């Protein structure tokens, strides 16, 4: 793992002494719920706001892109069919949450004149990580072929949070994607296999090698990597490491620390048309509104 300067204000990444940590210590490196004292209250507020937003925008919900129970889109089209579209992939370490829980984060971009598309995906252990990654690829294929039938035909910025940040970073090279905004993601899967998270994922050597963005060739498209300044060090380091890898390859894109944000509150920057993440998405398309 990359070493950082001693005057770096970010707390030391505990993964630097990975071999000295027990299972609980390794799990704590990724346990966002435990790291954010009011995480349960934030999640409850998010889910309530999302239920209200979804109820107010019922015209294009639960549209299947494949045959699975969760493989469907919730679409929030803009007034103009050629408006840019943010595709937002939810998180939950590939094993919990649902697209409906994140509907409220379409609010800021909708108000700014963008469309938003939120795909669901099959969760582990019902699906392997390789299968989940493939489903997001299928979702992007479907949106490119059928989005205009639902009022979505503009350029796509692929975004995602937490596990969704991983899925967004992985699919930057998809032909339908113009740019990506990866938020608070996990970009090296190897440590995950040594934690409680692998109880449902059962990661293989091949998945770690072929699905970790930090282990793959760099896609030469713009990607902004965002994280909250109060995130767990492991997530901050993964974001910085991926940005450094891309910078070394001269790939475009910014590193975006969100001041004062934790793993959950960072997404509130999607709630307003002037939110930091809304502006980041617009900047990826040259300020397109």
From TrEMBL:
Keyword check for Hydrolase: yes
Matching Gene3D superfamilies: alpha/beta hydrolase
Keywords: Hydrolase
Superkingdom of the source species: Bacteria
Keyword Hydrolase among UniProt keywords: yes
PANTHER family found in the cross-reference section: AB HYDROLASE SUPERFAMILY PROTEIN C4A8.06C, KYNURENINE FORMAMIDASE
Protein name: Acetyl esterase/lipase
Organism expressing this protein natively: Methylobacterium aerolatum
Lineage: Bacteria, Pseudomonadati, Pseudomonadota, Alphaproteobacteria, Hyphomicrobiales
């Amino acid at each position: 793992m990359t070493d950082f300067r001693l005057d770096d204000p970010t707390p030391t990444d505990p993964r630097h002494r990975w071999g000295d940590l027990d299972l609980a210590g390794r799990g704590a490196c990724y346990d966002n719920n435990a790291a954010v004292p009011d995480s349960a209250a934030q999640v409850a507020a998010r889910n309530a706001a999302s239920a209200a937003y979804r109820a107010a925008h019922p015209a294009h919900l639960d549209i299947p892109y494949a045959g699975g129970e969760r493989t469907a889109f919730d679409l929030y089209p803009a007034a103009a069919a050629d408006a840019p579209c943010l595709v937002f992939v939810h998180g939950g370490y590939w094993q919990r949450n649902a697209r409906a829980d994140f509907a409220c984060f379409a609010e800021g971009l909708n108000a700014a004149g963008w469309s938003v598309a939120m795909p669901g995906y099959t969760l582990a252990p019902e699906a392997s990580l390789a299968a989940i990654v493939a489903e997001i690829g299928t979702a992007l294929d479907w949106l490119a072929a059928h989005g205009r039938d639902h009022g979505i035909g503009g350029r796509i910025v692929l975004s995602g949070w937490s596990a969704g940040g991983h899925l967004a970073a992985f699919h930057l090279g998809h032909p339908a994607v113009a740019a990506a905004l990866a938020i608070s993601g996990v970009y090296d899967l190897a440590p995950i296999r040594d934690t409680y998270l692998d109880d449902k994922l059962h990661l293989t050597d091949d998945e770690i090698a072929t699905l970790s963005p930090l282990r793959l060739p760099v896609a030469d498209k713009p990607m902004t990597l965002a994280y909250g300044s109060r995130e767990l060090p492991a997530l901050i380091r993964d974001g910085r490491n991926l940005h450094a890898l891309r910078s070394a390859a001269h790939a475009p894109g910014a590193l975006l620390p969100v001041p004062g944000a934790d793993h959950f509150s960072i997404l509130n920057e999607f709630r307003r048309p002037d939110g930091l993440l809304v502006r980041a998405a617009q900047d990826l398309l040259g300020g397109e509104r």
